[in-house]
Structure formats: structure tokens, C-alpha cells
Amino acid sequence: MQKMKVTLLSGRTINQGTGKEHGKTSQEYYESVAICEVDTNDLDALGIKDGANIKVSTEFGSIIVKAKESIRGPHPGIIYMPYGPWINAVANPTTHSTGMPSFKGIHAEIEPATSAERVLPLHELLKQAFGKE
User: DSSP states of the chain as a string?
Assistant: First the structure.
């Protein structure tokens, strides 16, 4: 299976903010943060379609999320995930005395997810990645 080295960025989005207003256990929140925006050409190079599951891996962990064709760009080699539990599973947990993990410039790899890999619902993600429900 083909992999691509990328730089992972994260931040707030309007959809993430409005999804949070529905509650963090809502479908709206899940659909707004369990995603990864990817440059169109990078999706094509990996044979990934918009809405397909992809694996995002860093030295801190791996997560399955929905691939979303980025409407911004072009920005080859750069991916974006909104703030939420899914980015927390792969971001550097070290805060360097700031109280905030590093969410910018994370070295990552993306690849198509296998048919057995799925985007975990929030309660399963929290249990698997953080040992909590």
C-alpha cells in the first residue's frame, strides 16, 4: 500500500465550532472533526477518493479518519485536521511549558485505510487512544 510523507497542521474550523455546539457526542461534531483535509493532487497520487477512510500516522500514534478534498490550495504535502479527539491521538502531547500541545508542523504519513479499518466513534477512540471512556 502506498504511503505519503506530509506535514500535519491543526486548528479550529467553523464546522468544528458549530459541531461542538451540538455536543461532543453528536453526529455533527463527529463529522466535523474526524476528518483530514488533503490536497486534491495528493489524494489522486494515493488513489484516495473524497470521503474514503485514510490512516494518518505520526510518531505519537495512528488514527483512521475521513479524507476530505481540501477546498484550499494547492498545498501538496500538507494535511489539516480540525481540533478534536482525533487530532489529539496523533499530536505531540508535550506542551513545552505552554499548556498547549504542538498542533502545527507535525511530521506524518497518510495512506489509504484497509477495508477492516474504520473511523472510531468517540467513546471507542477515547478508550483505545487514552484508556478512558
Answer: ---EEEEEEEE--HHHHHHHHT-TTSHHHHHHHSEEEE-HHHHHHHTPPTT-EEEEEETTEEEEEEEEE-SS---TTEEEEESSHHHHTTSB---TTSSS-B-SSEEEEEEEPPTT--PPPHHHHHHHHHS--
Q: Which domains does the chain have, with CATH numbers?
A: 4-130 (2.40.40.20)
pTM greater than the 0.85 cutoff:
yes
pLDDT tens-digit series, residues 1-52: 699 999 999 887 667 667 666 777 778 888 889 999 999 999 999 999 999 9
